Amino acid sequence: MFKREEIEIILKQAQKVDKKYELFGASTHKYKLNPPIRDSFVRSVEEKYGFTLPKDYFQFITEVGDGGAGPDYGLQSFTEFLSEGKDTFSKQYWEEYRYSLAKPFVPRLMEAHEVEEFSITTQEAYERNPEHYFICEEDLETKFCDTDGYLVLGTHGCQWDFGLITAGERYGQVFDTDNEGGYAFVANSFTEFYQKWLDRM
Asked: What's the CA gap between 84 and 110, in Å, rounded?
């Protein structure tokens, strides 16, 4: 279980070394955590949209910080996805996305002949761990490849995101996506994912 004061020690050390925020994405989060949010607020969101966040991520945003310092451009605030959607189209899209978090994440395994169609991996990386790469089939009506049960946690840049599985057999795991329908397994839990980043710091 993460403790804010312990993470802040690591972040302050990183900031001393990287005073000009030269590490990729650091100029966005500046090694700062956002304040945590009330657990009652998170529970109300879960109840409204019918999903339950993994315990470690719930603990992080309610006791450590609701976004901020993290891999590349940092962690998005959990509350941000509630404020998205300004016009009629985007409002509908974002509401569908919020409700999709309760539906199982069920992409299929990528096949060897499909690797070149997606930017999520290279042929060499695929051959080392073919069981780590997946494809989300395009929805014929919406033309989107958004997978159900996938909460975007942040971005690597250039439409490469990382996210948390909120429903299905892979509940609690973290995956990268190229937003073209390709997905790559990253970690078994949010805790493992974030600890790896702290270790790199």
From this structure: 31
Q: What is d(CA 184, CA 131) in angstroms, rounded to the nearest whole number?
A: 9
The letter for the amino acid at 121 is: T
Report the distance separating Cα 180 and Cα 46, nearest Å.
27
* Nearest Cα residue to 11 out of 65, 76, 78, 77: 65
Reported pTM: 0.90
Q: pLDDT digit string (tens) for 68-123?
A: 999 999 999 999 877 766 677 778 888 888 999 999 999 999 999 999 988 899 99
Distances (CA, A) of 76 to 32, 79, 81, 112: 12, 8, 9, 33
101 and 185 in contact (C-beta within 8 Å)? no
**Amino acid found at 146:** D
Amino acid letter at 101? L
Q: How far is CA 54 from CA 45, 139, 151, 171, 190, in A?
A: 14, 27, 11, 7, 8
Q: Which pLDDT tens digit goes with each residue over 39-69?
A: 999 999 999 999 999 999 999 999 999 999 9
Q: Sign of dihedral through CA atoms 171, 51, 58, 182? A: positive
* Contacts for 114 with CB less than 8 Å, ≥ 6 apart: 135
Range list of H helices, the chain: 4-17, 26-29, 39-49, 55-59, 80-83, 88-100, 123-128, 190-200
Conformational region of residue 110, where left means phi above 0, alpha means psi within -120 to 50, and beta covers everything else = beta
